[in-house]
Each structure stands twice: as C-alpha cells, then as structure tokens.
Amino acid sequence: ANSKLTDLVQNSAGEANTGSERHETLIALKMNPSIDTSAEGVIFKDKQGSLELMNGEYNRQLRHRGNVLLRQGDIGT
Questions:
Q1: Quick one: which of 7, 33, 48, 59 has the fewest CB in 10 Å?
Q2: What are the tens digits of pLDDT across the range 4-56?
Q3: What is the DSSP string of the chain?
Q4: Which of 49, 55, 67 minimizes the C-alpha distance to 29?
C-alpha cells in the first residue's frame, strides 16, 4: 500500500506546471488522518519538494476558505 501512495505522490507533484487535479490529490493526502504525511513518513521521505507543495497548497486552501467565510459573515472579525 505504501508503494502505491508513494507513486501517487510522485505522479501528483512531478512537474511544476501541473493541473489542479494533482494539487487536489496532495490536499486529499494531507487531509486524510490515516496517512502519515510527515517529513519522516514513508511517503514524503526524501521528497521535500512534494511535501512543501502539499503543505503550501493546503495552507492556501485554508486561507481561501477563511476569506470566503469572512465575506459571507459566517465567522467574526
């Protein structure tokens, strides 16, 4: 199972100019609590660039969602 996840990460973060589907795959990995997405884990060991891309995309999505909620008035200022 770990080799399939490792292959998925390599395919998802392979090129700099990839489509949003690959970024969504990395976000899905980050959000799944059953998957070890730490730098020491099997999936991202020796894949610092993929790890940084995943964390950056995840944080970007969190900021975007927070801004949407602020505009809608669903959270206080």
A1: 33
A2: 666 666 665 554 444 566 788 888 888 888 989 898 988 888 888 888 988 99
A3: -HHHHHHHHHHHSS-SS--HHHHHHHHHHHH-TTS--STTSTTTTT-HHHHHHHHHHHHHHHHHHHHHHHHHTSS--
A4: 55
Single out the residue of 63, 1, 58 nearest to residue 27, CA to CA.
58
Per-residue tokens: 5: 């996840």
Task: Please report how many Cα atoms fall inside a 13 Å half-sphere around the Cα of residue 34, on the Cβ side.
Answer: 3
Q: Record the tokens describing residue 19, joined without a space.
A: 């489509």
